[in-house]
Design goal:
heterodimer; A: 424 residues; four-stranded mixed sheet; 19% strand; B: alpha/beta; Rossmann fold; six-stranded mixed sheet; four-stranded antiparallel sheet
Chain lengths: 424, 233
């Protein structure tokens, strides 16, 4: 009876160990899980933002018009019909900036939102006039038809190229023969000659993505609409916004001096637009460097969090293993009596701990991937797992086992086998 | 070195434990010789130094003074690793509470000393199967100790003790946790091993009923051998 009780207790203890071991490795599981998912999320975010930055082109400087903060002294004049607002980049800026060293060419954009009619339906869409170099400098892809050529430009042809989203909004799905059809803008008819797509996620400040544009040649726009930008519908009065250009895409000859060129452009803009801050500048190359810096800071913070959670997990495991050693004195003593050397006992316990942490690490990786997948699915954030984040997690789990398992294992090896032979 | 036929020889062995500032002597000069093929009982009441003597004989502890010869080799001052090797190869331990591993089956339990001796698996399986047959547990090879009776457990322990073909078996109250009938069975197993295999057995007990099984009984009291009694085998 006594014997049965004893065995039942041992069996019960073993089961208890299993559950306790699992609970103990939870520290490692959550540590590794959070690291894997955070790395996946940050890697996804990094790649997305890098793609966006690179979509603008690291050999570009973007200068754009922006509505100045209302200070009361803005250059707006009341006329009978409404208010005219004047701000932003000008023709003079364009010709001056073109003369700068290290500037290869400037592609200008004007957002001239006009009344766009398809049949009799009035649509509120983005009409953007651009230079021919726009297609190359924004890395847009021509899906159908053709792009503008110099003949269109010289003849002020009424032609347009539409973004792929415009195609979807303007025509029924599956409709063919879009290229060649006509759309009406402010009474003028434009022939659709091509469809473009930008799948790099390029977003121009104040103007948006090329996918959402109806694009016409700059010369045609100048000829038809003048330098006026779009007519906005004010709450009480018609507001006519007078912006000569919305965006300059400045292509740089030598990227090594891009910082200096950007500085000179800023200097020029500061000087010529002293009245108010009606412009902005984006240097993708700088953004790239900033992004890298942010990434480094993020990495340091994440490593610290990972380190702390693994430390806590490791200490938890060490704690449980020490209790384990105490509980299994009899087993240790018996093994020693039967011929186990100290190093045999040491290895046994060390391997148990490492196995525990590796198992925890593996579960953690699975959990991390699960979290990343959930984040991708429900929050629409892109996530990317890298091979190294998984490899490093496994190696680190093993290392945690070795670091925090050594002391309990040593303790186990130091158990005095005489204890076993004492009458129970 | 010539073989004297002596398995164990203790010469004036003393053992003292340090308790605070004082050394407390437990063994006060023990002289014992056990010859090959002997079945000797060591008897004494609790506090007589039985357990300490058992630890020394089992190479789990070293004497403070005196010499211990195991098959004519002095073993009283060996390194921890060397002692573990000798425990593994020369001594077959049998414990009062069996000390089997509950998560291993009978066969695996028998093989534990062989594992530490570095015997390959197929060889271990052969030896453990043979030994299981010898202790009549062949039908129980794949059972866990929890599924066995006390007597069966002790038979597993005996098989385990025999697995490395030791110089002598060292049993500590092997029937202490068993009922009378099972005790007799186990003692008969020892007797058979003794008679048929000429096994050398040292058994520590305080149970006078076991006396008839022994060739010789060594009485211990207060850390000294106070008498011996020989029975014609």
């Amino acid at each position: 009876m006594l014997v049965n009780d004893l065995f039942r207790l041992s069996f019960h203890n073993l089961l208890l160990h299993k559950i306790r071991s699992f609970l103990t490795s939870l520290g490692i599981i959550f540590g590794v899980g959070s690291v894997i998912s955070m790395v996946a999320i940050s890697e996804g975010a990094k790649r997305q933002s890098l793609a966006q930055i690179e979509a603008m082109g690291i050999d570009k400087i973007i200068v754009f018009s922006k509505k100045p903060p209302v200070t009361g002294k803005s250059d707006s004049s009341s006329t009978q019909g409404g208010i005219t607002e004047t701000y932003g980049l000008t023709q003079i800026d364009l010709s001056n900036l073109k003369k700068f060293d290290n500037v290869a060419r400037i592609t200008s954009l004007r957002n001239s939102r006009k009344k766009i009619l398809k049949g009799t339906t009035r649509l509120d869409m983005l009409l953007v006039s651009v230079d021919i170099s726009f297609l190359d400098d924004t890395k847009c892809k021509l899906l159908e038809g053709r792009w503008f050529n110099s003949i269109d430009e010289d003849n002020y042809s009424n032609v347009c190229v539409i973004g792929k989203n415009i195609k979807r909004n303007l025509f029924e799905i599956g409709k063919t023969g879009i290229v060649g059809s006509m759309i009406r803008v402010e009474g003028a008819l434009f022939k659709v000659i091509g469809i473009v797509e930008n799948n790099l996620g390029t977003q121009f400040p104040e103007v948006n993505s090329p996918n959402d544009m109806i694009i016409i040649p700059a010369s045609t726009s100048d000829n038809l609409f003048g330098y006026n930008a779009y007519q906005g519908q004010g709450r009480r009065q018609m507001t006519i916004t007078h912006i000569e250009f919305d965006v300059f895409i400045i292509k740089i000859t030598n990227i090594a001096f891009i910082d200096d060129t950007a500085k000179r452009i800023k200097g020029y803009m500061d000087k010529t637009h002293q009245k108010e801050k009606d412009w902005g500048i984006i240097v993708p190359f700088e953004l790239l460097k900033q992004r890298e810096q942010t990434q480094n800071i993020f990495t340091v913070i994440m490593s610290s969090i990972a380190g702390i959670s693994l430390l806590v997990g490791g200490v938890g495991i060490m704690n449980i293993m020490l209790a384990n050693v105490y509980e299994r004195r009899k087993e240790i003593g018996t093994r020693r009596a039967l011929g186990a050397k100290k190093r045999d006992i040491l290895s046994q316990f060390l391997i148990e701990t490492v196995f525990l942490t590796l198992l925890g690490g593996t579960i953690g990786i699975a959990m991390g991937i699960g979290i990343s997948e959930a984040v991708t699915r429900y929050a629409q954030w892109p996530t990317v797992y890298t091979f190294w984040s998984i490899a490093v997690s496994i190696i680190i789990s093993g290392l945690v086992g070795i670091i925090f398992g050594t002391y309990p294992a040593w303790k186990a090896a130091q158990q005095n086998p005489i204890e076993v032979l004492r009458a129970e | 070195m010539e073989n004297s036929g002596e398995i164990v020889r203790l010469e004036n062995v003393k053992k003292a434990y340090r308790m605070g500032m004082n050394d407390v002597p437990v063994l006060k000069g023990i002289n014992i010789v056990v010859k090959k093929g002997e079945f000797a009982g060591i008897m004494g009441s609790s506090g007589s130094g039985k357990s300490t003597l058992l630890n020394l004989l089992g190479l789990l502890d070293v004497p403070t003074e005196g010499k211990y010869y195991l098959i004519d080799r002095e073993v009283s001052r060996l390194s921890d690793n060397r002692l573990a090797e000798l425990r593994n190869s020369c001594i077959g331990f049998i414990f009062q509470s069996f000390n089997l591993f509950p998560h291993l089956n009978v066969q695996q339990n028998i093989e534990v000393p062989l594992v530490y001796a570095g015997v390959p698996k197929h060889e271990r399986n052969r030896i453990s199967s043979e030994l299981a047959e010898k202790v009549k547990l062949t039908h129980r090879l794949k059972h866990r100790p929890t599924e066995l009776s006390g007597g069966e457990c002790q038979r597993v322990a005996v098989a385990r003790a025999l697995s490395n073909n030791p110089s002598f078996l060292l049993a500590d109250e092997p029937t202490g946790n068993l009922d009378e009938k099972t005790s007799a069975e186990i003692m008969e197993l020892f007797k058979t091993l003794h008679r048929e295999k000429n096994a050398t057995i040292l058994m520590v007990t305080h149970n006078p009923e076991l006396k008839p099984y022994f060739d010789r009984v060594i009485y211990l009291r207060d850390g000294r051998v106070v008498g011996e009694e020989e029975f014609g085998a």
